[in-house]
Amino acid sequence: MERWKKVIISLLLILVMTFSGIVLNTFVFNPEYVKADEIIGKGEVNADVTGLRIRTSTSTSDSSNIITVVNGGFGFDIYDKVYTSDTYYWYKIGFDYDGSYTYGYISGEFVHEVIVYEDDTDFEEYLEKQQFPESYKEGLRNLHARYPKWVFVADHIGKDWNEVVENENAIGRSLIHESSISSWKSIEEGCYDWDSDRWIVFDSGGWVQASSELVQYALDARNFLNETNIFMFERLSYNSNLHTQSGISNVIRGTFMSDSGHDLSYNGTRYTYASGLLKAGQESGVSPYHLASRIIQEQGSSGYGGSISGTISGYEGYYNYYNQGAFAANGQGAVVNGLIYAKRYDEETLRPWNSRMLSIIGGAKIIGKNYINRGQDTIYYEKFDMVSPYWHQYMTNILAARSESVSASRAYSDEIKENTALVFTIPVYENMPESACLIPEGDGSPNNLLKNLEIEGYTLTPSFSKYTTEYTLVVENDVDTIQIWADALGDVDSIEGLGQKDLAVGDNVFDIDVNAGNGTTRTYTITVARKEKDNPPSPSKPISFTSDYTFDKDAHTVSGIALGSTIQDVVEAVHIEGDAVLKVYDKNDIEKTSGIIGTGDVLKIVSDDGIFDQFTAILYGDVNGDGEIDLLDMAELKSSMLGWIDLSDIYLKAADVNRKDGVDLIDMAVIKWHILGMEAIVQ
What we know:
Blueprint: H1 2-19, E1 41-45, E2 52-55, E3 66-70, E4 75-82, E5 90-97, E6 100-107, E7 111-114, H2 121-130, H3 134-146, E8 151-160, H4 161-168, E9 175-177, E10 192-193, E11 198-199, E12 201-203, E13 207-209, H5 212-219, H6 245-252, E14 265-266, E15 269-270, H7 273-284, H8 288-299, H9 334-343, H10 356-370, H11 379-383, H12 400-410, H13 414-419, E16 423-430, E17 450-455, E18 470-475, E19 481-488, E20 494-496, E21 499-502, E22 506-515, E23 521-530, E24 544-546, E25 550-552, E26 557-559, H14 567-573, E27 575-577, E28 580-585, E29 591-592, E30 602-607, E31 610-617, H15 631-641, H16 649-655, H17 665-675
Parallel strand pairs: 8-16, 18-23, 26-31
Antiparallel strand pairs: 1-4, 1-7, 2-3, 4-5, 5-6, 9-13, 10-11, 12-13, 14-15, 17-19, 19-21, 20-22, 22-23, 24-27, 25-26, 28-29, 28-30, 30-31
Helix pairs in contact: 6-7, 6-8, 6-12, 7-8, 7-10, 8-12, 15-17
């Protein structure tokens, strides 16, 4: 009675507003849409769902009642369940929207109630017994709270995570469609054409190599421990107690198999897709739910696949529902090769498949024999072969298991899910990352290569190559500016570091940063050495200098400087006679007025007439030129001895701390003794 009062009051309000000239909004009036007093639970949109509408009413025929659109993982409060004529009930929900708490309705078909896990000693002991890593447990606890009868089996494969990732990254083994975002696609050698800014297609229809990051996401079982994707781990053997024709109807609902009109006759009986797939499951020993989801995966929900059209020229009346043998080879496309396979005679697999049911049942027998019954008995293991291992994989689509799990999850009603001990075999690898590998999200072109790079009027060394990033150039002293030009190979976001550059005497380092559309940067470096003045004029007055340091006028080096000496210490230690001063410059010819001196710094005696003389400092043991002797110098010396880096002459001299027969292990030992305080290096 109370409800009808609200309805009558609402109708009267509408009449009053209409006759008074007030314009109503276009939302459908719904007597159920009233503010609830009590939250009865929490809900969440299923992980695989995108674009789910929240409405002001349960009507789906009126687009004006849409409040907003949400995706998988969106959470909300539940106030009530509303039953309509639809197959699924609706939830009356509350949620935060545009800064305020809002009420609406959402279809129960695409959401689930969140049940909070309460401490379950028996389940925790079971997880420990199965030796599930900690990073698996949160997802499994949430599933157990919702479906306490489900059984989760930890499959400790005994394979190293990095080994599996490396093998699944083999070119052509893990593919993704070229229309995907760029971070899903590999740019490794042989996978991406930098010149054309396009990915290389490995299978007809535009399938390219998946990126390593996407492969790791797809391999990591922890990403799929939710009530939808968990079905990629469901055991796929036929079970007459679980697999029903109505369950198959749920899987194929909304696809071409729900109402196709196709002739599905077999041995005198005419089947529907639901009954025909059940027959195929019985004869092959394979879950008919899996067979149905496999056909959807291969032929599309609309059945657009040429493999089942029956009209391909030269192969009219032949069908290949599971695309077995369908791969591009020998100058033929995947569809034709699949139909060649379908046309061959093989009694065991019912070939030739010159009827739809022969293909559905015969192909199911192949799946049973070659996959399910050899240990690849989950959707996950059909994709990721851990038996052979690696080469015997049913599909190359790296996300096939994820998408097929969505179809598989639809097969069971909520009642069956809640009351059946479904078994899920979940892989665990050795040396896995501590947390789940996230799906990559970046997009935009990865092309950060240059088509050309030049300094106007000069030739770089080495000659330009798009993959070479280090260049040098030597110019005369009278050249004090240069102009750097470059063009990108592809469509880049920006190039930084171009234009006119001023040159100091000595080495000038210029970085050219090429910023790709996907946010990555490649840096090209040009080092321009500007020469000293040739034959500087003689000073108008004689100049000489004295010091306790050792000046080698032939090699133009200076040694004997104590470690930790400041610039001021050095200036005061050199006594100059004549009209000149001592200045200290770093290796890039930038004057130093403070700090300590190190190997590679240059002492210049400068008069009004120019540079009278200059000497490069050597501090024995200071191999990296920072003025100190520490582990960094040992690492620099070790890298040089192993051939990893090339030390320039002055730093090699600094590394020869015992001044005997060049650099060797004895020098490394002496540096180590110095660091440990056992024996100081004499300068």
